[in-house]
Amino acid sequence: MRFIETFDLWSLADTAVSLASAFAFGTLIGAERQYRQRTAGLRTNVLVAVGAAAFVDLAQRIAGSEEAVRVISYVVSGIGFLGAGVIMKEGMNVRGLNTAATLWCSAAVGACTGTDMIAEGALLTAFVIAGNTLLRPLVNAIARIPIDEQKAEATYEVRVTARRDNAPALRDQLVEKLEAANYPAGDVELADRGGETVDIVATLISTAIDPKEIDGVISAMEKEDGVRHATWESSTTG
Q1: Do residue 124 and residue 70 come from a single domain?
Q2: Same structural domain, 10 and 79
Q3: In this predicted model, what pLDDT tens digit does every residue of 47-103 receive, in sequence order?
Q4: Are the beta carbons of 166 and 206 closer than 8 angstroms?
Q5: For residues 81-93, b (16+ Cβ closer than 10 Å) or e, as one string?
Q6: Which of 110, 184, 231, 237 has the fewest Cβ atoms within 10 Å of its own Cβ atom?
Q7: Coil, strand, or helix at residue 110?
Q8: Residues 156, 235: Cα–Cα separation, whole Å
Q9: Is residue 149 part of a domain?
Q10: Are 159 and 198 in contact (CB under 8 A)?
Q11: CB of 232 closer than 8 Å to CB of 218
């Protein structure tokens, strides 16, 4: 039997240590995620760590370190697909990025143990847990700081809802008023709302604005004939 020819007790023990370490470290990372009721919790992080360790250990036993490095690159790309499954976009908000990043780190922990770098895997586990726990108060503190619109880098849109027959002229007026306020539009689109109204959406080139100046443009546009409503909104880009 092929099994009898390839079986080696010491190699099996080495694999067992690698997988057990990945299991233990994945459990530590996953327990914190499970406690916070995240999409990818205890079992997911354990399986990611153990799976990565198993693939890397198998490649190393069959073909050596060079092949193990190749498999690690495949693990990294494969986890990218798994992480994409936990990322959800809800309007302007994106959820699940931290969970996806944690899965990526769990795979890295598994890769470390799969190559018998147990101490490195333990160190990485400590950093992952610290990132998800110790940094949380700092994140909450930063999130409470009011945003200075003049310093924040964001994408700004001015939206004017108008009668369809007035849209071409109002589009030109909006562009002129924005340029007069030193906020030129990089793109202006007409979005059909159905019926007799359309949205004129101007995306500004500027990544920082003075809200009072944009409010002035909005007020001026609302006085124009055919305008039903005018507003502006921002979304942070970095």
Answers
A1: yes
A2: yes
A3: 999 999 999 998 888 887 777 888 888 888 888 777 777 776 554 456 778 888 899
A4: no
A5: ebbeebeeeeeee
A6: 237
A7: helix
A8: 7
A9: no
A10: no
A11: yes
The widest CA-to-CA distance across the chain, in whole angstroms, is: 88
Same domain flag for 188 and 87:
no
| Structural domain that includes position 115 | 2-143
Residue pair 52/103 in contact (Cβ under 8 Å)? The answer is no
CA angle centred on 83, ends 61 and 23, rounded to 5°: 45
CA 5 to CA 183: how far, in whole Å? 75
For residue 39, the SS3 value is: coil
Give start and end residues of each alpha helix (H) in the chain.
Answer: 2-6, 9-35, 42-63, 65-84, 97-114, 118-133, 136-143, 167-180, 211-222
Domain boundary among 97, 113, 143: 143
Q: Which two tokens stand for residue 109?
A: 């922990």
Token pair for 217:
């443009």
**Radius of gyration for the chain, computed over Cα atoms and rounded to the nearest angstrom:** 27
Question: Which pTM value belongs to this model?
Answer: 0.58
The domain boundary residue, chosen from 93, 121, 143: 143
The CATH number covering residue 218 comes to 3.30.70.260
Tell me: the pLDDT tens digits for 5-29?
A: 676 778 788 889 999 999 999 999 9
- Which candidate, 9, 31, 27, 7, places its Cα nearest to that of 19? 27
Name the amino acid, one letter, at 177.
K
